[in-house]
Design goal:
Blueprint: H1 5-21, H2 26-31, H3 44-47, H4 55-65, E1 81-84, E2 99-103, H5 104-115, H6 119-130, H7 142-146, H8 166-182, E3 193-198, E4 207-212, H9 215-223, H10 230-234, H11 247-258, E5 272-273, E6 284-289, E7 293-294, E8 298-299, E9 303-305, E10 313-319, E11 327-333, E12 337-338, E13 342-343, E14 347-349, E15 357-364, H12 366-371, E16 372-380, E17 384-385, E18 389-390, E19 395-396, E20 404-413, E21 419-424, E22 428-429, E23 433-434, E24 439-440, E25 448-454, E26 464-470, E27 474-475, E28 479-480, E29 485-486, E30 494-501, H13 505-508, E31 509-517, E32 521-522, E33 526-527, E34 532-533, E35 541-550
Antiparallel strand pairs: 1-2, 3-4, 4-5, 6-7, 6-8, 6-10, 9-20, 10-14, 11-12, 11-13, 11-15, 15-19, 16-17, 16-18, 16-20, 21-22, 21-23, 21-25, 24-35, 25-29, 26-27, 26-28, 26-30, 30-34, 31-32, 31-33, 31-35
Helix pairs in contact: 1-6, 1-11, 4-5, 5-8, 6-11, 8-9
């Protein structure tokens, strides 16, 4: 059995906050990944060692991690108590006696001994699945306790109500790991062989080839069958991209942060990823729908949500996987109003409260804002599809108690405002010009000796690369636009140039340019790495014009 994916999306935020609170610097945060090996997350000796903590030590640990906890709908984990029934002997775990007014620490300790599992493992499992160890206030819900370890909660299916108590969640986890160990042939991921492990429940994200060194690691992957992709690993304890999954990464980082002595013996066997799939789109998004939960993600103008079914959209998540940052979003929620802005991967709206998402606003910053507009529209109850909105405008309604039922979102490429300048014979640097302007001279028989190019603020210089063909030198190396092409102080003519875009921008934009050449005049426009000017003809370039515009769809 595996944990519920939607639950993982939310408890990631709790786990990140909990780990981050104890890690004062980025270097300390990065340190929790030292020794990470996807094929050897923890040794068998450590995982199955039930004697690492007494009940009193567990109690003290929970008290320290929950020192600032404020009770919510349910008590803090350190204060949780319940009558636990007797549990009979099984082929996986020893019998448990009935205990009145049992504490969370007592339950964890008893299950650890009965199922021969390290209690530290159970504590880390609770944290990475539900965040209960550090949860406080509104995070302490009956649902969080009913899904405490994710036992009996398959992805995209309802949780088993027969296991919806805290004691059965902890016991169910311990029992499962012993089941995996006793009958390894029955389960997908096996020890001491190479396994194909998904990055994400969405199989479009691909999988990695991982040599799993031991039964403990195989059990963790059978419980949570996803491995961290490069984006999740780079984020350390934060969030990667749409295709990132965090369960086993967070188990490792929680254990490394809280119980470092248990995390020894990694062989540092490398992860061997399958060919990286192309991201699903420029902007990826998923809707959480009334009565359905999280839908499969869509991208680039496709519909998230439903129409014609009178089902409210309760939450949205958006990712821009081609870029590390630059998307912000916020939602107006029933009985809440406008929420704070969140960045790529954050939740807009709410889940678990049966509240309608009533309005949305999306904005771009930095590189994304220089290259794209964000365009979106909402399908609203009683109204239908509204007109498209752009760049921070409100889609949906406020003050009308109407639900958004569906949304469509896309990034629309736009002309990039570039600036470039020419260094001309006897004149030096001329004033810079903007997109499409003439840099250099015409009708004066003056050679162009060098060119500079500047991109908008927030756009990295290596988004554009170029090279020049210079008299007596030939072709210069390709270099980012932050470096001039041509020469200064040598009296050499620039004879040709080539310019091209890199990365995602090359798929959505085109760089067009042309040269005014000695004895030729203005040549035709060329694009995307083609030659403007001449080579082998000893003719000077006298002026250039350049633009970066959206590709024609």
């Amino acid at each position: 059995m595996v944990r519920r994916w939607a639950q993982a999306l939310l408890c990631l935020l709790v786990t990140v906050a909990a780990l981050g609170a104890g890690l004062a610097t980025p270097a300390q945060a990065a340190g929790v990944m030292d020794g990470y090996d996807p094929g050897n997350l923890i040794s068998d000796a450590s995982f199955f060692n039930s004697g690492t903590m007494s009940d009193s030590a567990i109690r003290d640990f929970l008290a320290s991690k929950g020192a600032s906890c404020v009770a919510g709908p349910m008590p803090c984990l350190k204060d949780y108590r319940v009558d636990t029934p007797a549990t009979p002997l099984t082929e996986y775990c020893a019998a448990l006696p009935a205990v009145s007014n049992n504490s969370a620490a007592g339950i964890i300790g008893a299950v650890a001994r009965a199922c021969r599992i390290n209690p530290q493992v159970l504590i880390a499992l609770l944290q990475k699945e539900s965040g209960l160890v550090t949860a406080s206030g509104g995070q302490l819900t009956a649902t969080a306790y009913a899904r405490a370890t994710g036992a009996g909660c398959p992805d995209f299916q309802p949780c088993d109500p027969a296991q919806a108590t805290f004691v059965l969640q902890v016991y169910g986890a311990g029992e499962r790991f012993q089941r995996y160990a006793k009958y390894p042939e029955r389960f997908n991921v096996k020890a001491r062989t190479t396994n194909q492990i998904l990055y994400n429940p969405d199989t479009r994200c691909g999988r990695a080839s991982v040599y799993v060194a031991n039964q403990a690691t195989a059990g963790l992957y059978n419980y949570t069958p996803f491995t961290a992709d490069a984006a999740a690993l780079s984020a350390v304890v934060g969030e990667g991209g749409y295709c990132s999954a965090y369960g086993n990464r967070n188990f490792f980082t929680t254990m490394k942060s809280w119980f470092p002595a248990a995390m020894t013996g990694s062989t540092q066997a490398p992860i061997v990823p399958s060919p990286t799939p192309t991201p699903l789109g420029l902007v990826i998004y998923a809707g959480h729908v009334q009565g359905t939960g999280w839908q499969r993600a869509v991208a680039d103008g496709a519909m998230a949500g439903t129409t014609g079914q009178s089902l409210r959209l309760e939450a949205l998540r958006l990712w821009v996987d081609y870029f590390t940052k630059g998307l912000t979003a916020r939602g107006h929620v029933q009985d809440v109003g406008w929420q704070p802005w969140v960045t790529s991967g954050g939740v807009v709206g709410s889940t678990g409260f049966n509240r309608r998402l009533e309005a949305i606003e999306f904005k771009l910053t930095g590189q994304l804002a220089a290259l794209y507009d964000i365009r979106y529209r909402a399908h609203v109850s009683g109204i239908g599809w509204q007109p498209y909105r752009l760049n921070g405008a409100t889609a949906g309604t406020t003050g009308q108690a109407r639900a958004i039922e569906a949304v469509e979102v896309e990034l629309v490429p736009k002309t990039v405002a570039i600036t470039y300048a020419a260094h001309v014979q006897n004149r030096g640097w001329l004033p810079p010009v903007t997109s499409g302007g003439t840099a250099g001279t015409t009708g004066q028989s003056l050679r162009l000796e060098a060119l500079s190019l500047h991109l908008p603020s927030g756009v990295p210089a290596d988004l554009v690369e170029w090279r020049g063909h210079v008299q007596d030198v030939g072709w210069q190396p390709w270099q980012g636009s932050g470096t001039d092409i041509g020469t200064l102080g040598r009296g050499l003519r620039l004879e040709a140039l080539e310019v091209r875009l890199k990365g995602t921008a090359a798929t959505t934009h085109t760089v067009r340019y042309r040269a005014h050449v000695q004895d030729v005049g203005w040549q035709n426009w060329v694009a995307d790495g083609a030659l403007a000017g001449t080579s082998g003809q000893s003719k000077r370039v006298e002026a250039v014009q350049m633009t970066i515009t959206p590709r024609t769809r």
